[in-house]
Specification:
Blueprint: H1 8-16, H2 31-50, H3 62-75, H4 78-84, H5 109-115, H6 135-145, E1 148-149, H7 154-169, E2 174-176, E3 188-191, E4 194-201, E5 205-206, E6 212-213, E7 215-220, E8 224-229, H8 230-239, E9 244-246, E10 266-274, H9 279-282, E11 288-294, H10 298-301, E12 316-325, H11 329-339, E13 349-350, E14 356-357, E15 362-364, H12 367-379, E16 385-388, E17 393-396, H13 398-402
Antiparallel strand pairs: 1-8, 2-9, 3-4, 3-9, 4-7, 5-6, 7-8, 10-11, 10-12, 11-15, 13-14, 16-17
Helix pairs in contact: 2-3, 6-8
Length: 406
């Protein structure tokens, strides 16, 4: 029973009866601090699941890159360090790189969240007023910012985990929020770097301009929610240059016959060999290869290999490349990695801050096998084969062999 529920006379009477009066505790954190803590806890969950810190780099999925940016900003803030250091279970503030402290006391909530990578990104300095927002834009921004803690987040957590895994595996695509501006119950979006789920849609209402609108219950992956108008969410997604629609699960073809604006028309499968002097790596360098797919310049991609755990913290050399056209890059890379999973190198190394890293794109497979694999990808027959590590050969599935007459 809270003390504030009683008068002084009530307190005296209860004291006479030997009844202790409970004093209701107050939340010691401001809403802004709660949001910072929620963002930090997301990074900690990533570390617990993956056994490493989130990394920058185009080979990593969008969520990992967002967490990496957020961690950099948190480490740069003296205020965040004071708030979060006692909660730091994984040493995220230990051995942090040299960063410039940011005085976050002078920032308002939106500016602070932008600094932490959990709000709308801006191309310019946050202290520069480039233009004045329209009334509609201000209203949309206010509604997006007015979020509360999601009490029943556990009911949605598995959904978020599943969708993030499906995006990473290429089962779902993220598409720019452009021509299709529809927003319906059950759909996922990425707004200001956070995955958002439209859990409920209220009764239709008429907007001031006469068009139809509705209140939505939107759940975000940082355990917050908002009761936002559909048209306000649409404006926010349009305004966010990185705003994305998440597609429904649909594996689709690896090589598409029809292209659209967001398709990647070409890509390069690259094969790298490490120059590391690590005994476990150097002794198997002739058959140890990193295999990936990129749409960018490979030379640029590997320029700082010796500083990147993805490249085993060592320089690398390009030993083969294969140009492919009209492909889905993410699906192709996942297909290759699944096909060679039995030959994956199981190793952990330490990054330059002493944190353990578990690279997942290195395989113990001869170059001639990679040549064969790419040919079978091109002719569409790879699904009929498997890679036998013992014989170092591509073999027909046992199901194919068993179908022959005895």
């Amino acid at each position: 029973m809270a003390k504030s529920d009683f008068t002084d006379e009530d307190d005296a009477l209860l004291a006479e009866l030997g009844v202790e009066v409970e004093v209701k505790g107050k939340n010691s954190h401001t809403p802004r601090e709660e949001r910072i803590i929620a963002g930090f806890e997301e990074i900690e969950r990533f570390v617990e699941i993956n056994g490493r810190l989130p990394q920058h780099g185009e080979s990593n999925d969008i969520f990992e890159r967002l967490y990496a940016v957020r961690l950099d900003q948190i480490r740069a803030s003296a205020e965040c360090k004071a708030l979060l250091e006692s909660m730091d279970k994984h040493g995220l503030f230990t051995n942090n790189p040299n960063v410039t402290n940011t005085d976050l006391d002078a920032l308002d909530d939106d500016a602070l969240l932008a600094e932490l990578g959990v709000s709308e990104p801006t191309a310019n300095d946050i202290r520069q007023l480039k233009y004045v927002k329209s009334r509609a834009e201000r209203k949309a921004a206010e509604e997006v910012a007015q979020r509360s803690y999601c009490e029943d987040f556990e009911h949605f957590k598995s959904l978020f985990d599943q969708v993030q895994a499906e995006i990473k595996a290429g089962v779902r695509k993220t598409m720019l929020f452009k021509e299709d501006a529809s927003i319906n119950q059950g759909e996922f979006f990425i707004l200001n770097g956070q995955l958002a789920y439209v859990a409920e849609s209220g009764e239709p209402i008429k907007a001031p301009n006469g068009e139809a609108d509705a209140r939505l219950r939107v759940i975000y992956d940082n355990q917050t929610e908002s009761n936002i108008l559909r048209r306000s969410l649409q404006r926010a997604l349009y305004k966010d240059e990185a705003g994305r629609r998440v597609s429904d699960p649909n594996a689709g073809p690896l090589f598409d016959s029809i292209t659209n604006e967001d398709d990647i028309e070409s890509g390069t499968i690259y094969v790298l060999r490490s120059k590391s002097d690590h005994p476990e790596i150097a002794s198997r360098s002739s058959v140890l290869h990193k295999i990936g797919v990129t749409g960018g310049n490979i030379t640029t991609r590997i320029a700082n290999a010796k500083l990147d755990p993805t490249f085993l913290m060592a320089d690398v050399e390009v030993v083969a490349t294969y140009e492919l056209y009209n492909i889905n890059r993410i699906k192709l890379e996942n297909l290759i990695h699944r096909f060679l999973n039995s030959a994956r190198l199981e190793i952990h190394i330490k990054d330059r801050f002493g944190n353990p890293i578990y690279p997942r794109e290195w395989f113990l497979v001869p170059l001639f096998i990679i040549d064969e694999m790419v040919e079978k990808i091109k002719d569409g027959t790879l699904s009929n084969y498997r890679y036998d590590v013992e014989t170092a050969k591509l073999e027909l599935h046992s199901l194919e062999l068993g179908s022959k007459s005895k």
